[in-house]
C-alpha cells in the first residue's frame, strides 16, 4: 500500500469532517466539506483506501493545495 495525500482544491473553512482515521473509503467518496463564498465544496477521495490521518477539524481554515486527508491506498 502507498500513502496518498488528498488535497483541497480551494481555500475556505472546513464545515464538515465526514471520515475518521481508520475508516475505509471508496473512490469518489466525500471526505470533508469546505465552505467558500457561501458554497460547500467536497474534498473527494481519488481512489479507495483507508484513512490514516485527517489533518483538519471543523472550523479550521484550509488553503488551496493543503493536504486535508492522508489515505493508504
Overview of the molecule:
By secondary structure, this protein is mainly beta. The protein has one domain (3-61, 68-72): Beta Barrel (OB fold (Dihydrolipoamide Acetyltransferase, E2P)), CATH 2.40.50. It has no helices and eight strands. The chain has strands at 3-7, 12-17, 24-25, 30-36, 39-44, 49-54, 61-62, 67-72. It has a four-stranded antiparallel beta sheet with strand order 1-8-6-3, with no helix packed on it. Strands 5-4-2-7 form a four-stranded antiparallel beta sheet, with no helix packed on it. The protein starts with a strand and ends with a strand. Residues 1-72 form the Lipoyl-binding domain.
Key words describing this protein structure:
single chain, 73 residues, mainly beta, OB fold (Dihydrolipoamide Acetyltransferase, E2P), 4-stranded antiparallel beta sheet, 8 strands, 55% strand
Concise overview:
With 73 residues, the chain is mainly β. Helices cover 0% and strands 55% of the residues. The chain has one domain: RNA polymerase II/Efflux pump adaptor protein, barrel-sandwich hybrid domain (OB fold (Dihydrolipoamide Acetyltransferase, E2P)), CATH 2.40.50.
Give the topology, please.
Layout: E1 3-7, E2 12-17, E3 24-25, E4 30-36, E5 39-44, E6 49-54, E7 61-62, E8 67-72
Amino acid at each position: 500500500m502507498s500513502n496518498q495525500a488528498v488535497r483541497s482544491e480551494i481555500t475556505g473553512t472546513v464545515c464538515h469532517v465526514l471520515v475518521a482515521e481508520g475508516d475505509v473509503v471508496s473512490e469518489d467518496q466525500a471526505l470533508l466539506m469546505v465552505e467558500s463564498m457561501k458554497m460547500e465544496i467536497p474534498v473527494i477521495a481519488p481512489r479507495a483506501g483507508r484513512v490514516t490521518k485527517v489533518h483538519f477539524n471543523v472550523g479550521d481554515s484550509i488553503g488551496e493545495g493543503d493536504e486535508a486527508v492522508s489515505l493508504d491506498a
